[in-house]
Amino acid sequence: MARKRKANGNGMMLLGVLAGAAIGAAVGLVFAPSDGENNRQHLSEWTASRAQELKDKAQSTIKRE
């Protein structure tokens, strides 16, 4: 007889945290004191920077293995 794995809820907790972070970021952008053009420019630069950091970390991890 096959055993069923009992879900511990960690996945749902992570999903909730990520959803809360996304909602918080969206609200922060809506109520930010600068105009939309500056916000979009800043967000674009920030995401490009984070994407490059992620790529660099992934490449260094691959090189170590």
Topology:
Elements (H helix, E strand, L loop, with lengths): L9 H21 L5 H29 L1
Walkthrough of the structure:
The protein has helices at residues 10-30, 36-64. The relative contact order is 0.06. The chain is mostly helical and 65 residues long. The mean pLDDT is 81.
What are the key terms here?
65 residues, single chain, flat, 2 helices, mainly alpha
Short characterization:
With 65 residues, this protein is mainly alpha-helical. It has helices at residues 10-30, 36-64.
For the sheet with most strands, the description reads:
none
Unreliable segments of 5+ consecutive residues: none
Structural class call reads mainly alpha
Strand content: under 5%
Q: Tell how many strands the DSSP assignment holds.
A: 0
Number of helices: 2
Distance between the termini: 39 Å
Q: What is the number of domains?
A: 1
Element-by-element helix/strand order: HH
Mean of all residue-level pLDDT scores: 81
Question: What share of the residues lie within helices?
Answer: over 70%
Gross geometry: flat
Radius of gyration: 19 Å
